[in-house]
Each structure stands twice: as structure tokens, then as C-alpha cells.
Amino acid sequence: MRLHADTGVCAGAGQCVRAAPDLFDQDDDGLVVLLRADVPERDRERALTAADWCPSGAVSVHEAS
Questions:
Q1: In this protein, which residues make up the domain named Divergent 4Fe-4S mono-cluster (predicted)?
Q2: Parent domain of 58
Q3: Is this structure's pTM higher than 0.70?
């Protein structure tokens, strides 16, 4: 599973950080910073929650091919 974070879409709500602080952070402007793109299976649910909670749709999850 891979994560994608689009800073051009990010609204700075910080829900991704609340869901998975080891996968996401925020920069000085409050925009999403992706800490790890490759998500281990043990973190799958938290990654999906972060994408679900993102109000702007800036966080997305893709199955690795």
C-alpha cells in the first residue's frame, strides 16, 4: 500500500496527523507532509482512516502494484 499527499489540495485540517502521526506531519503552513509513502500491513487501517478523515481529499491510498 502506498500513500499520496497533495499539498495543493490540503486544507491544513490535520486529521491525517491525528489518525497516523508516524505517517504524516504538517509543515509551518499547516500543510500535509508525508513521512512514509510505503505503508506496512500493520499500519493499513490507520492509513485508510487518515485518507477517510481528510476533509479536502488531499490524502489518498493506493494498493501497491
A1: 2-62
A2: 2-62
A3: yes
